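User: For documentation purposes, I need each entry recorded in a consistent format: the amino acid sequence on its own, followed directly by the corresponding structure tokens. There are two entries in this batch. Please keep commentary to a minimum and don't merge the entries.

Assistant: Recorded as requested. Entry 1:
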Amino acid sequence: MSAPILVAENIGIGFGGLRALDGVGFSARAGEVLAIIGPNGAGKTTLFNIVSGLYRADTGRITLNGKDVTHTPPHLLAASGLSRSFQNLQIFFRLTALENVMAGRHLAESSSLLADLFRLPASRRANQATRDRALELLAEVGLAEHAETSAASLPYGALKRLEIARALATEPRVLLLDEPAAGCNEAETAEIDHLIADIAARGIAVVLIEHDMKLVMRISRHVVVLNQGRMLAEGTPEQVRNNAEVIAAYLGTDSADA
């Protein structure tokens, strides 16, 4: 088994008198899907906000590619290979689908301010490379025919895939997806399902927060369960699905049919 590319250890954070996370951790490996599940308020998005640099943990340690990144700001984490999507869409609705993905490529561009200001050949080459890669990513998420479509005109499921394409534009080694199928119908969820599996197959470590247990059980290699800010269980999807504590706290008595 390969060494984990992203490790969170003993993560804890409090807000006022509330301990939102306490002693939480996980390891994510290249080419695998790790799912983090739990009831609403369990601390899942808070954990993502810490890992992606938006919050500073009170306790614990985060390593990326073997390097301590515990208090590293988001833009430096992105430059180091960590990208994420958000539970609520963060799309530029006045831009086209292509322009949205191109916006995610800014860290990969190498042209200087001077070259951009005077539209030098280096700037034009960089812009063309960004456009070409953005078109490739739109094709990968099934949106090639919508490249010049205004994001405001796209259906909800397409917008969820567009956000993933923009996250991929940073060329991440680790991708955090916060409820990528939330609000999607069955057909849209199936598209997201296949897309996530394809992303992992490319060697990217995918860490997923999701409430759709059928999706989680289908595509995850490992599952971490949170409850009230603490680790309740972890293991393979089968182990988690049959864990009595998980069933009582979250999955319910019908989980065996999921």
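Entry 2:
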Amino acid sequence: MNRSLLRWARVVGPALLLAVLVWRLGTGSFLNGIRTIDGGALAEAAGIAVLTTVCCAWRWKTVAGGLGVHLSLRAAVAAYYRSLFLNVTLPGGVVGDVHRGISHGRDVRDVGRALRAVAWERSAGQVVQAILTLGILLALPSPVRSSMPLVAVGVAVALCCAVLMAKMGPDGHSAWARVRRAAARDIRDGLLARRAWLGIALASALIVIGHTITFLLAARTAGTTAPVSQLLPIAVLAMLAMVLPSVAGWGPREGVTAWAFGAAGLGVQQGVATAVVYGVMVLVASLPGAIVLLVAWFRGTRLPARNARRPLREGAAHA
């Protein structure tokens, strides 16, 4: 029952947030954002997405290889595009990642390890994103700057506690001990291996930079003329909100962007328009994933048909 309620909350919460924004601001801000979009901006966003998706795929390939599951870069790029498309078109925001892990697991006949590779790959990216976000929010003026020293202390304490719990965790054969050992092994082999950790960190940083540039491009496309130093903290806050459950990517992003723009004196409506432009850019940039899905569906329908026709041909030959 609790799991069912949690599932519903992941969808209903973002939907209610969108409904509140429409109720308070009307549809004008959303429509204005859509009207400002042009082909050039979409092409630039799609080009940035190619680079970030390749970085994502390479990070996933590296982590999976460290955990002992083979994955080619070509297959990783195609699967990641498919994952992005599913994430931005289906509720929850993680359906594509789950599908990516299960599909790869079936290919290598180890679904559990493949799912762990996806989970650790996404976790590594979020850790790097959090570190960069914290640094930017500490360095540049933002609506949350006054709270950032306290947040930094809290993060440092939490990390220290996590390290101590990992070192002082129970030994033996308890469930917690097995989980702790498995997690430590995955982190050691998949994330902190000598030839992996620096590349994973660099790829994650490039991904965050690419997404940030796309957000700044969306703000300019929506008509925002504020300096980059003022928009950058808003961008990282908006991207942090994108980690939360959403309705096909919508909900928390629009709410946080609207609040941040309003708190920065740039206008709540302008924040919603920027978030809408960004959402459309991300959707268009993920469309190669739809092509991957269509190709897989077409192959899946063709193969059974060929197998069904083969016995008839053999029977005709014998006749």
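Summary note for entry 2:
The radius of gyration is 22 Å.
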